[in-house]
Amino acid sequence: MKKICVLVSGGGTNLQALIDAEHSGSLQGGKITCVISSNPDAYALERAKNNNISTRIIPRRDYADVAAYTKAVTEALIAEQADLVVYAGFMTILDEQIVRAFPYKMMNVHPALIPSFCGKGFYGLHVHEAALEKGVKLTGATVHFVTEICDGGPIILQKAVPVENGDTPEILQRRVMEQAEWKILPEAVSLFCQDRIEVIDGRAYIK
Ligand code: GAR
User: Fold this and answer.
1) What is the rounded distance in angstroms from the CA atom of residue 93 to the CA atom of residue 150?
2) Rounded CA gap, 137 and 150, in Å?
3) Is 169 near ligand 1, meaning CB less than 6 Å away?
4) What is the pLDDT of residues 45-103, one digit of tens each?
5) 83, CA 20 to 30 Å: which among 7, 15, 22, 65?
6) What is the pLDDT of residue 54?
7) Gap from CA of 55 to ligand 1 centroid (Å)
8) 126 a catalytic residue
9) What is the pLDDT of residue 187?
10) CA distances from 132 to 7, 115, 127, 139, 168 (A)
11) For ligand 1, is residue 88 a contact (CB within 6 Å)?
């Protein structure tokens, strides 16, 4: 059974999708063993506690810089013996130390079809604001491995979602979560836990 550690900062609806998948038996080969939050007030922590999952709070403001913060998170993940690290709405930048410790063992869910609307500054509602501003007719979500390039690691799964007339960033965010993120994140985690994802020449393939 692979140990899955989930990094969160906010509401934790993607964490909830993972918990639900584990309970329904669709997270084959994996178990959520720890939730780590950068934000002491994150509702995601309540979701973990309600499901008897152990939690750690590592507040970003307690650390002087990105390097010190990354070291603390990396040490916590090593202590938890994480086999897979999932960034589920984790809003804090980490540096390459953690990528060296967990190569192709970390995945992130991003609320757009990468390479659109991604990279520095594109997180949370800002992503959907940018999609509406551009007037794209399709957006969606991407699950990818985390590398040292922000939102630039090998793409594992993507799912498209239509943009509709009258959408606000909030309405679009909700549709992208419901139709894409909450489906493809548990699916990608399950594939990983069954050793069904292979990375060749920087691209991910499902076996
Ligand atoms: C989700 O839409 C997730 O894709 C996004 O933040 C939201 C977190 O929601 N993540 C990013 O933008 C990371 N670049 P949640 O806390 O309810 O899962």
Assistant:
1) 9
2) 25
3) no
4) 999 999 999 999 999 999 999 999 999 999 999 999 999 999 999 999 899 999 999 99
5) 65
6) 98
7) 19
8) no
9) 98
10) 28, 16, 9, 9, 8
11) yes
Quick one: which of 196, 195, 189 has its CA closest to 32?
189
Tokens 């985390």 locate to 146
3-state SS record for the chain: CEEEEEEECCCCHHHHHHHHHHHHCCCCCEEEEEEEECCCCCHHHHHHHHCCCEEEECCHHHCCCHHHHHHHHHHHHHHCCCCEEEECCCCCCCCHHHHHHCCCCEEEEECCCCCCCCCCCCCCHHHHHHHHHHCCCEEEEEEEECCCCCCCCCEEEEEEEECCCCCCHHHHHHHHHHHHHHHHHHHHHHHHHCCCEEEECCEEEEC
In contact, 76 and 36? CB cutoff 8 Å = yes
- Cα-to-chain-centroid distance, residue 73: 15
Evaluate: CB of 53 within 6 angstroms of ligand 1: no
**Scanning the structure block, which residue is given the tokens 């984790």?**
90
